[in-house]
Amino acid sequence: MGGKSGPSNNQMVQLEMQRAQEAKQKENERQARLNQGKGAIDTIFGTENFGDDFYENYRKAGLDYTMPQLQSQYADAKRTSESDLARAGLLRSGAAGFVQNKLTEQQGVNEAGLRAKADTDTAELRKSIAAQQQQAYNQLYATEDPTVAANTAATSASNAQLQQPNPGSLGDMFKPIAIGLGSAVAPAIGEYQANKALAARTGREPGSSTITG
Amino acid sequence: MCDPISIIGLGFSIGMSLYNMQQQQDMASQQSAANDQWVAYQRRQSQDYLRRDEDLRKNAEAARSGSLEELDAKKQTAAQEGEAERLKVALTPEDVANQASGDPNALASAMFSGQQNGSDEMKTAIQGHIQQAAIEARKRIAALANVQAYGGSQYGLTNRANTIFNTAGQDIRLAGNERAGVLSAYNVAKAVEPIKIAQYSGGAAGGLANAGAQVAGQGLGNALAASI
Q1: Angle at the Cα of B54 (from B53 to B60), degrees rounded to 5?
Q2: Considering its fold, how many domains does chain A have in total?
Q3: Does the structure's ipTM exceed the value 0.90?
Q4: Domain tally for chain B?
């Protein structure tokens, strides 16, 4: 006789079982909420919402800003070259073709560079949206687990940032091609070459002949 | 046959034994009551903890789901477009805006000084070029505003999203901190043990019962010895 009675011990066991049942139910509900929450986040940040159209708009906006600047510089460079060629009397020459080729080549390379930049900028936007999605996951886990909430504080300070295209001027994208200067010195170069050839044939330096007798 | 002292001793011994049993039953029933009380306390604490934890979790969930609603594609696109409109105005110089809209004063002020005295036809032609240039500039400014509205500007998408996450994060962390406090308080409550009633060992009553039995036994022995 004496000590703890049987029924009371039974009550304690029942209490522990009830606690275990509550914990199990709570965990089941938590897991269901996690699954539902993750599904909602996946939908919001999925391709149906943030699809290619969303990113294409950004790429296009970037190009809409930079391409007119390139076109304008190309037009200026072309006009300047035409004027220089006309002044040098070379508008219908092989030199004009050379200049035209150089301008076209530079235009193509520059445009490709700008398009590549717009593409990588768009990739940055994709990264930024992905970072938002990650933040949303973190907050879901922090909501469902208080111990995670404290750890999230440290990471939330370093939020997602979007590397954006430089809003300033593109700078000079076309190298100037000297046209007038080459034409001006061409006669002098021709005279030098002719004298050099003459000296090789006669063995004398031009302009240093000695008259005897 | 039996001397009175033995009878008294026997009676005393029986009485003391009954008293001892009674005391042990009282102790058992007190322990049972204490256990019941402890179980009720633990149930109360458990229910109280679950309710408070759930309330705080709901606070965090409200902050979280609220932030998520603000980040869906439609709202983000609308925010980006709204920010682009704001930037178009904020970035466009007033002169350019006036020239693009064909304001004669703005167009005239952009002309070179010698051009002011030219013929009307010439002035109209030059002003037409200036207006066209201003329209082109506005187009490019609009494109710049569009790009900036995705991220770096004041209310651009990235900054907006960060603000939304930070605001929700504050509420979630607050709820998380409070939940941790509630949990630790509950753990203290769980560690509370039931009152332990000291087991009744017989004590004085048991001793007295023994003494009575001894006296009774002695008396009975003596009586039996005398009768032989």
Answers
A1: 90
A2: 2
A3: no
A4: 1
